[in-house]
Every structure is written in structure tokens, then in C-alpha cells.
Amino acid sequence: MIGLPANTRVWIVAGHTDMRKGFDGLAALVQTALQHNPFCGHVFVFRGRRGDILKVLWFDGQGLMLLAKRLERGRFVWPQATGGSVHLTPAQLSMLLEGIDWRMPQRTDSPRLAA
Q: Which of 49, 90, 111, 115 has its CA 20 to 30 A from that of 72?
């Protein structure tokens, strides 16, 4: 994943999005459906109807960046809401892009007492 600047917010766009949309279509969706400015530097994540494709829209200060990922097996974990947005941390975004359930990640080991 590309390192995001500090204070960058990550927004999941709830529901499903037409994955035929490109830069302009997704930017318009951010403006109309979410009432956000797509050029504010925040990251906006969209999921297709089948759940195996994601698109990420991000303005890095110079231009819009559009990233796409398709899982060969499995589905991306997505909120049940059909509208609105959900805020994620950059760590949760990394888990989402890896196909990991970002809602309640499980640690593999718990800390032990030193003595």
C-alpha cells in the first residue's frame, strides 16, 4: 500500500458502486452522495456488486489516483449499510486490501508478563 500522509482520512462508500466508473464518475459520486470534496486529500474506497473488486480514489496534491484490486478468491469485507460512509484507519485499509476482516482483527499472540 502507498504510504498516506498524516491526518489522511479513509472513507468506505457504503453499498455497492458501478465498477465501470472511472476518475470523473467516482469523484462525482463523492461530491453528490457523500457531500465531500474528492480533492481534499482523503481516500475514498468503493466496492463492486459481487464484492471481489475495490477501487480507491485519492488526490495526492498533484492529481487524482485511481487504484483497483480484484480478489481471485473470496470477497472484501464491507459494512451492511446501503448508503453513507464509514471511516477507517490506514491500518484497517491495509487489512481490507489484503482481504482480512478489518472490523475485528484478531491478534495472533497476547503480551506476557516479563517476570
A: 90
| pLDDT over 90 at 78, yes or no | no
3-state secondary structure of 87: strand
Say how far apart CA 45 and CA 61 lie, in whole Å.
18
Q: Domain range spanning residue 67?
A: 10-97
Closest to 20 measured CA to CA, from 33, 29, 12: 29
Q: How many domains does the chain have?
A: 1
**pTM (2 decimals)?**
0.83
Q: What is the spatial distance between Cα 45 and Cα 97, in angstroms, rounded to a whole number?
A: 10
Could you tell me which of 85, 107, 99, 111 has the C-alpha nearest to residue 30?
A: 85
Position 46 in a domain: yes
Query: What's the mean pLDDT in 45-61?
Result: 93
Backbone angles phi, psi at 94, to 5 degrees: -60, -40
